Automatic annotation (TrEMBL):
SMART domains referenced in this protein's UniProt entry, alphabetically: KU, TSP1
Coiled coil: none
Top-rank lineage group of the source organism: Eukaryota
UniProt name for this protein: Tissue factor pathway inhibitor
A GO term for molecular function: serine-type endopeptidase inhibitor activity
């Protein structure tokens, strides 16, 4: 049986055993243990005594070493004199390990060029950032692994707005907030007491509501967005009677500025495919079609989606089209769309119209 010939009939892949096939070199009726294919023999011929340092010591020496390398031929020549080293630059990384640099210049740059001096002008050295481990690194994830969140505590008040909290702990006993500054161990949240928002009103037992849900993700990955949380009435049949009970709360949120976020990810963002989202809103947006090399209009539903979405075609082109210059004084008229998150300006063209709409239907 050739190793390159398929089995007839074909059978699923399975472990090699000593009972599998009589044609196999591992076949044996007497044992279930496959005999070793080879034997490795190590012989110690000589012992060389030396003082061994710890691994940390060797790493420290290598880490602090610079890569200065100079040709001795030019070191003592007057024409090749150099200034003292400038101070070290900041570490190139904000977390983990990076590189810092320092530089110097020739005292007589013209003469140095005439005499073809070759001195090292830039020196590099490894450096440790203030945050020892980066958030997404393997070392960070193992060192900074945490337990699951505890259940939310009871609201601090029985009526009106109070606070609730939950916590988690590091799995590694030596980990703390100094080594893992990105990790939150305590999370606090605003809550409404079981007796409602208004402490002056006698609570109606038929209008009891559940605790608030978790906050939804921020509706925008950068700059200002909205996040939502909801709760339900215990007795849904009394919805009209309990209309005064707040069942949805909206809150502004901002993960980071778009200028900082987008500048580092522009090429990646413009390659993303169009995603309309999973909600029921209707927000006109533009996305960059990297295959056709143009910005196209689509309707965004208000949640999920991705970063390849822009409020105007001009913004899309400025971000994704290389060499594009925005027309000076360009004015794009628009209309408004209203949804449960408030009012949003949409640049879409057309004269303003007094659009009368009905009340929202009940939530599905």
């Amino acid at each position: 049986m050739s190793p390159n010939s398929p089995a007839e009939p074909r059978i699923p892949i399975h472990p090699i055993t000593t009972k599998l096939d009589k044609r196999s070199p591992f076949y044996s009726e007497e044992t279930d243990v496959i005999a070793p294919l080879a034997r490795l023999v190590l012989r110690r011929e000589e012992i060389i005594k030396s003082e061994c340092k710890s691994v940390e010591e060797y790493q420290k020496v290598a880490f602090n070493a610079t890569n200065t390398s100079e040709d001795e031929e030019y070191k003592d020549r007057r024409e090749c004199m150099v200034t003292s080293w400038e101070p070290w630059s900041l570490c190139s990384a904000t977390c983990g390990k990076g590189i810092r640099m320092r530089s110097r210049v020739y005292v007589f740059p013209i003469k140095a060029q005439m005499f073809h001096c070759h001195r090292q002008m830039i020196e590099r050295q490894f450096c440790n950032a203030k945050i020892s481990e980066c958030e997404n690194s393997d070392a960070f994830n193992s060192k900074c692994s945490v337990s699951s969140w505890s259940p939310w505590s009871d609201c601090s008040v029985t009526c009106g707005h109070g606070t609730r909290s939950r916590s988690r702990t590091f799995k590694e006993p030596n980990s703390n907030n100094m080594t893992c500054p990105h990790v939150d161990l305590i999370r606090k949240d605003i809550c409404v007491g079981d007796n409602g928002d208004d402490c002056s009103v006698t609570p109606d037992p038929l209008c009891r509501a559940t605790t608030w849900s978790e906050w939804s993700p921020c509706s925008a990955s950068c700059d200002e967005g909205v996040r939502v949380r909801t709760r339900l009435l215990f007795y849904a049949e009394h919805e009209q009677r309990c209309a005064h009970v707040t069942l949805q709360e909206n809150e502004n949120c901002q993960l980071q500025t778009c200028r900082r976020f987008l500048s580092a990810h522009s090429e990646e963002i413009c390659e993303e495919e169009k995603q309309e989202g999973l909600c029921a809103g209707t927000f006109p947006r533009y996305w960059y079609n990297s295959k056709l090399k143009r910005c196209e209009r689509f309707i965004y539903t208000g949640c999920k989606g991705n970063r390849n979405q822009f409020e105007t075609e001009d913004e899309c082109k400025r971000f994704c089209v290389e060499g594009y210059e925005s027309p000076v004084g360009e004015v794009v008229p628009g209309h408004q769309l209203i949804n449960e998150f408030g009012v949003e300006q949409v640049e879409d063209g057309g004269e303003p119209v007094d659009c009368v709409i009905s009340e929202w239907t009940p939530w599905g």
